[in-house]
Amino acid sequence: MAKLLIHGHAVPARLSKEGMEIEPKEGDIEGLLLEAVEEAAELREVLIKDGRLRTDITILVNGRHCMFLEGLKTKVLKGDIVEVLLPMIGG
Amino acid sequence: MKVESIDSDLINKYIGGKGLAAHYAYKEIRGGVDPLSPENKLFIFNGILTGIYPGFTRYVVASKSPATGIWCDAYSGGRFGQELARTGFMGIIIEGKAPTPSMIRIDGESMTIEGSGILDGKNAYERCATLKPLSAMVIGPAGRKMVKFACIMNDMDGPGRAGVIGRGGLGAVMGSKNLDAVAIRGRLRDRDLIRQEVSKDVSATYLKAIKYLRDYVVKGIDLGGNLPAVEMSAGAKVLPVNNFMAGVVEGWERLAVPEIRRNTIKHHTCPLCPLACGVHVKADGEEVDRIEYETVALNGFNCGHTDLRKVVRICRLCNELGLDTMSAGVVASFAMECTEKGIYDFGVRFGDYEGHLRLIKKIAEREGVGDLLAEGSKRASETVKAPELALQVKGLEFPGYDPRGVVGMGLAYATADRGADHLRAWTITAELKDPFTMRGKAELTKYLQDRNAALWTLICCDNIPANTTGNPEEWVDLCLEMLKTVGIEVDKAGFMRTGERIYNLTRLFSVREGISRKDDCLPAKMHDGRPDTKWKIERGDFERLLDAYYELRGWGKDGIPTADKLKELGIP
C-alpha cells in the first residue's frame, strides 16, 4: 500500500496526520489520486476541478516534488508516501 | 536642490516607478560603490497613476542595498505617495551626504533642506507626529545607526494606514546620508492630477476599478494584513517554526485570524482605496496600528512565540526603532538557534520573550552582540561560522513561507532581484498550463516576475493581484485601461515586455556588483530534510530548475543576460 497525505487549510486533520492507505493499482500519481477520490467522496471537492485533477496543487513523492520525477506519470510503489499541498494566498 | 525633467522616451520605455528607478540607478550609481557612502543614491518615485485610481497611492524607494550590495526596491502604502504626486514631481533623487542630521521639507512651492533637531530622541511614530500635517517618510534610531535592515516608515501617526519601506536596509542608506526625514505637502489638489479633457474617461474607469476591488479583492483580503495566510500556511505545513526547523507548531491557532480578529480595534486604509487592509490590534494592553502575516510568522512561530500580546509588542518595538520586522524576525531566530546549539551565545533562546525584546533594542543601538546582528544574518553567520543557520538569499532574510515542499517558491526566492522575496513571484496559487513540470514552474516564475515588475512601474498595490478571488489578469487589463486614460497606450504584450526589460535591467545592476549563478541559490537548510516532514529540495533538482529558468529568460548558464537578449529588449 502507498500512503496519501493531504495538507491544506480546511482539510480534515486526519488526512494530513494519518492520511489514507491506498493500493497503487494504476501505477502512477494520477491513478492513485483518482483512486483516492473514488474511495473517499470528500476528496472530490478537494482534488477535482471542472471534472479533472486540479492544476494548482503541489505533489510530493517521498518528500520530492513530482516535477523532478515524471510529473503525474511518476510511478508510485508500495510504501511510497504521496503528499498533496493545496494552494494558498500569500503576501 | 535642482529640478530635472524626464524625457518622454524614458516614460515610453519604463513608464514610472520601478522602471524609472532602475534606469536612473543603473545609470547613476557607479558599480562597486559602498552602499553607505555618499556616492550611493536613493531614488524615490511614484507611479503615473498615483493619486488618480484606487490601489495607486504607493511609492517606491530604490538604491544599492547595504544588506545585499545589489539592487533593491521596496514599496509602501499610506499617504506619502499621493502627497508626492500632489507636489507635481514624479520623484526625488537623493545624492551625497548632509554634514549634519537633516531633513527635506517640500511644502507647497517651498523646498528646503534643514536641520532635523526637532526629531532628535524621537521614535518613528513621534517623528511622523512631529512633522504633521505634512506626510513624512522617516527613519528611526536603527536607521541612524545604519543597521543593515533598518527600514523607512511613513504616516506612522495616521490618519489612515501607515506604510513601511521594509526590505533591504534602505533606512540605513538614509541614515548614511544624515537624512532623518522627507516631509511633503503638495501644492496640487486631487483634481489637478487629472487632465480636464480626460476626466470623464477617468471617472468611468475609476468605477470599473472600484467594482473589481469590491467584487473580488475585499473577500480575498478578509481580515487584512494577509493574516489568513497563517491558517493556510499551517494547513500546508509551510509556516516558519524555530528558524525553519518545522512547518507547523502546536498552538498556532493562537496567532490565527479568529484570535487576531477578536483583538482588532480598527482597520486603516490608504487614500482612495476601499480595502481596509491595515489591521490595528490591541492585545492585553499591547497595541500596534498595523500587523501583517510576515511579522506574525517570522517573529511569532519562528522565534518560539504563540502569544499575540508578545508578537504585538515585538512588532511595535521594531516599528518604533525603525527595523524591518521580517529581517528582524529571521535575525533573531538565527541568534536563538546559535545559542541553543552552543555555536555562539547571543543570550536568547526560542520562546524567550524578554530576551527577544532586549536583543531587538541591542540591534537597533548596535550594542554588544547587537552590533554583530545589525549586520544581518549573512554576515553574522559568517562571523560565527554557522552560515547554514542563516535563512537568506544574497543577504536578504527569508519571508515567512518554507519553500521545501512548495519548491517553486524556492526558485522565486533564489531569483528575485532583491534577494529572498516572495512577492516578485508568488507561485503557489496560480493555475498552470503545465503544472507538474520544471518548465511550467520556471515559466510561471518568469511570467510573474515580469508582470509584477510592470505593475510596479505603475506602483500598483501588490495586495490586489496577490489576494484577488477573481482573475488577476483582469486587473492587469484594467490597469492598461487606466494607463490609456492618462495618455499611455500599451497592449498586454508591450506591458509584459516593459516588465521583462526592467527585470533584466535590475539583473544587470546586480551583475555589475558580481552577481551570477553562484548567488542564485538557497541556504543549506533547504537542501536538508526538514525534521518534521523530511521535505527537502535536492541540490541537483534545484540546479535543473534554474537551468530551465535561465533558458526561458535568455540568460547564459552563468545567469547573466546575453547580449542578444539585451539588444532584443532595447537595453544599451
What does this structure look like?
The complex is a heterodimer of chains A (91) and B (572). Chain A is an alpha+beta fold and 91 residues long. Chain A contains 3 helices and 7 strands, in the order βαβααβββββ. Chain A has helices at residues 13-17, 29-39, 44-47; strands at residues 2-7, 20-22, 48-49, 52-53, 58-61, 64-65, 81-85. In chain A, the strands form 2 sheets. A 5-stranded mixed beta sheet of chain A has the order 2-1-7-5-6. Chain A has a two-stranded antiparallel ribbon with strand order 3-4. The longest helix of chain A is centred in the middle third of the chain and has 11 residues, at 29-39. Chain B has a 6-stranded mixed beta sheet, sandwiched between helices. In chain B, helix 7 runs antiparallel to helix 19 and helix 10 (293-299) packs parallel to helix 12. Classes of the chains: A alpha+beta (91), B alpha+beta (572).
Outline the secondary-structure elements.
The complex is a heterodimer of chains A (91) and B (572).
Chain A: E1 2-7, H1 13-17, E2 20-22, H2 29-39, H3 44-47, E3 48-49, E4 52-53, E5 58-61, E6 64-65, E7 81-85
Parallel strand pairs in A: 1-7
Antiparallel strand pairs in A: 1-2, 3-4, 5-6, 5-7
Chain B: H1 8-14, H2 17-28, E1 42-45, E2 59-64, E3 71-76, H3 80-86, E4 91-94, E5 102-107, E6 110-115, H4 124-131, E7 135-138, H5 141-144, E8 152-154, E9 163-165, H6 170-176, E10 179-185, H7 199-221, H8 229-235, H9 257-262, E11 264-268, E12 278-283, E13 286-288, H10 293-299, H11 308-321, H12 325-340, H13 353-365, H14 369-373, H15 377-383, E14 392-393, E15 396-397, H16 407-415, H17 438-458, H18 463-467, H19 472-485, H20 492-511, H21 539-553, H22 563-569
Parallel strand pairs in B: 5-10
Antiparallel strand pairs in B: 1-2, 1-4, 2-3, 5-6, 7-8, 7-10, 8-9, 11-12, 12-13, 14-15
Helix pairs in contact in B: 1-2, 2-17, 2-20, 7-19, 10-12, 11-13, 16-17, 17-20, 17-21
Highlighted features:
heterodimer; A: alpha+beta; Ubiquitin-like (UB roll); 5-stranded mixed sheet; two-stranded antiparallel sheet; 3 helices; globular; B: about 575 residues; 6-stranded mixed sheet; 4-stranded antiparallel sheet; 15 strands; about 40% helix; ThiS/MoaD-like (chain A)
